[in-house]
């Protein structure tokens, strides 16, 4: 009995704490919406400085997180994303400075027109309000998201991965210390004050305070958020990205794109997971590319036709076609036509980033029209789906949703709009 | 036992039926996304003709709905929205023709730029996919929504109010008969095949087929959808709209705006529900406007100060301030300042449409900046928040959400975008 009661009261405690954080964020958001660009940029610069000023404490907290993760048996790749260093902290500082230098999206007039009755209508960019972000155990994301939300006039409620809790507390404390020295409210940036999973569930029900939830992460997290959230969600889910090497592909270009899309940074969501090859191209291309991939330590899994042409390839199962490996693994399928490639992408892909390699303009246009992904490429690597690479200045992540923001989300995607209507006494007839 | 088993099997049956409808809509959406403007416009014209061709059957089905609603004791206002007539059917036909005449939003290039590495990026408008709409017992909404979704390249799954089920079936049958005579798929327009509430719940879990749910209606529906939907939602919820008569208001203009915002069509979401009056204006304005409102059969409920100045006014309760009357009822509050008006609107309003009446430009600008509503008016009636009045050509409704679409939703708001990237073999460094 006692333990049930304790558990219950601890959940209530978490839920009350999260509610207080979110309510304060809502208050802060009202002030931030009115803040000038100068106020925001000056606060960002102070935040950047304070991050370096508190370097020792942040690195100490991070070392504790890293030790705990190592004792817990986390993988080396996981530890690498978790670990901070002097260099990483300086990169975080520079990112905040860079955000301070970007144009302020708030207040921009997206359109204005006059109606026959004389009403003047303006569509004006305004902040979203309070942005809730749930993300992986990557402490640099804490300061990246905080700076992007502040610049776009939003308050942010952050909930990073459990293993990075101490690091995030130290980073958030530095950013809040900086905010206390400015005209902006400290609650512009806040952290869910517990590493308990109950903290996430408490967040998801606070639709009176939080305006959008951005979950970045694996399928269990995305499923939890999709099922439980009463707040609008912009998912940052998986990327099962394809490169299709067409009948009319220039093969040396295809080779370079395939190797880049798979190997340049395989753990990212815009890396290729499945290679599709037109059956007329396959005999000339497949044995060679498999050899080069294997030389780059990629495990290749293929359909039957692939294995006829490259016997060293392991058989791919049905599950492979929809798997995001995030690793040096690739599935390969020979297709009879561009249509079959498009159908495969639509059936197994995640509508993230997909590319065609071809010199045939009509084929390229058909691919571009028929593949309904956030980013569709002609003769380029899928790895370019990224806010910086697209020229958005920065990104909070890559939306795999269709509403509000699709693909890389920069500052503009962290805003909404309102209509401002000027009249001289107009009445509805 | 038997009845439980039957109930269970009937729910499974509904859920299977709804799933089949949604899966077919998803297939249809893929075809619609590729349809040309000519194909869509020609289908719309055929749909308009068929609606009139099947006039007798539609009016007969509607008469059955009306009789059932009358026997069920529905209000006269409810019956009026439910009832079709020759004239209303002709208006529905004309609305479809008008949508055929609007510009096609799909394929528009929203932006294009070249990156230093030579990549050419285009942001291109594409349909959302499958749009699920849950709406009131207003049969004209069935053809309005069907035509707007088709024009924007979306398949639509419609679920109108239970009392309008026969009318909607007859209208949808006419629209589908028209589609069978075109190049476009019949499943571009479909109806949830049951008036059972289980049909709504079944819809809300089909996120593999439906891309967005638009609920139009009262709080219980909005709450159900918010809590249950795993599909992104764009709410069309309540409008608790304000007119604030400032210290510097021109009083004859204020009088006309107040009467128009309250009385011109009180059952709409953009009608005023609360009037706020600056305390310096109140003695000169309040007794007179209360008299005119009462002469127009408006029941006025007020704060204490209001009742001192106009003793015929009933006392307003705390609940009144957040109530959407949709009727000839108005709450009135005297405020000490513009700030108090803004605070009241932010606390009790629904961020739909709010107006200031003033000749003071600085006050107008403060109101416009600080009131965070979908539409903020200076010296005009709140009744203009409407897709036609804003010049969007048409509207599917008025979003009270902040993400994706805010305020009137026209054809453009029924689309999303994708990035199309043209390269010459670019690789990520």
How would you describe what is shown here?
The structure is a homodimer of 429-residue chains. In chain A, the strands form four sheets. Chain A has a seven-stranded parallel beta sheet with strand order 10-9-11-8-7-12-13, sandwiched between helices. A four-stranded parallel beta sheet of chain A has the order 5-4-3-6, with helices on both faces. In chain A, strands 1-2-16 form a three-stranded antiparallel beta sheet, with no helix packed on it. The longest helix of chain A has 33 residues, at 2-34. In chain A, 44% of the residues lie in helices and 20% in strands. Chain A has two domains: 11-237 and 405-421, Aldehyde Dehydrogenase, Chain A, domain 1; 241-389, 3-Layer(aba) Sandwich (Aldehyde Dehydrogenase, Chain A, domain 2). The first copy, chain A, has helices at 2-34, 37-53, 55-71, 76-82, 86-101, 139-151, 165-180, 198-204, 219-228, 251-263, 282-295, 304-309, 338-348, 361-370; strands at residues 109-114, 120-127, 130-134, 155-159, 189-191, 212-215, 241-245, 272-278, 299-302, 314-315, 329-335, 353-357, 375-380, 397-399, 407-409, 415-426. The first copy, chain A, has 429 residues and is of the alpha/beta class. Chains A and B meet through helix 1, helix 10, helix 14, strand 13 and strand 16 of A and helix 1, helix 10, helix 14, strand 13 and strand 16 of B.
């Amino acid at each position: 009995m006692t333990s049930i009661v304790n558990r219950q009261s601890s959940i209530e405690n978490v839920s009350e704490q999260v509610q207080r954080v979110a309510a304060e964020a809502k208050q802060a958001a009202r002030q931030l919406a009115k803040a000038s660009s100068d106020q925001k940029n000056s606060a960002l610069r102070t935040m950047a400085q304070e991050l370096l000023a508190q370097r020792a404490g942040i690195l100490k907290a991070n070392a504790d997180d890293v030790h705990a993760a190592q004792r817990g048996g986390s993988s080396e790749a996981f530890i690498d994303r978790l670990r901070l260093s002097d260099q990483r902290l300086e990169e975080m500082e520079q990112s905040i400075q860079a955000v301070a230098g970007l144009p302020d999206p708030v207040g921009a007039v997206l359109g204005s027109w006059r109606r026959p009755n004389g009403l003047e209508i303006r569509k004006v960019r305004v902040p979203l309000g309070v942005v809730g972000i749930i993300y992986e155990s990557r402490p640099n994301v804490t300061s990246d998201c905080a700076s992007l939300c502040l610049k776009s006039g939003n308050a942010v409620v952050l909930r990073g991965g459990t293993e990075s809790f101490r690091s995030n507390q130290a980073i958030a404390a530095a950013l809040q210390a900086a905010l206390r020295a400015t005209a902006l409210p400290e609650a512009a940036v806040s952290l869910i004050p517990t590493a308990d999973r109950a903290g996430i569930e408490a967040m998801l029900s606070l639709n009176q305070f939080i305006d959008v939830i951005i979950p970045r992460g694996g399928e269990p997290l995305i499923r939890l958020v999709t099922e439980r959230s009463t707040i609008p969600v912009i998912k940052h889910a998986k990327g099962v990205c394809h490169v299709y090497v067409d009948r009319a592909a220039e093969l040396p270009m295809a080779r370079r794109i395939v190797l880049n899309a798979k190997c340049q940074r395989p753990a990212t969501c815009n890396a290729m997971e499945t290679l599709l090859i037109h059956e007329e191209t396959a005999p000339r291309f497949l044995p060679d590319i498999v050899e080069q991939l294997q030389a780059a330590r990629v495990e290749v899994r293929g359909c039957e036709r692939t294995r006829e042409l490259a016997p060293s390839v392991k058989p791919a199962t049905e599950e492979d076609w929809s798997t995001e490996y995030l690793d040096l693994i690739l599935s390969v399928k020979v297709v009879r036509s561009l249509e079959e490639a498009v159908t495969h992408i639509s059936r197994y892909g995640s509508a993230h980033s997909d590319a065609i390699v071809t010199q045939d303009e009509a084929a390229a246009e058909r691919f571009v029209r028929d593949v309904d992904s956030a980013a569709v490429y002609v003769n380029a690597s899928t790895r370019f789906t990224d806010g910086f690479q697209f020229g958005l200045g920065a990104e909070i992540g890559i939306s795999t949703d269709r509403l509000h923001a699709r693909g890389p989300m920069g500052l503009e995607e962290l805003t909404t709009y309102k209509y401002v209507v000027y009249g001289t006494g107009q009445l509805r007839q």
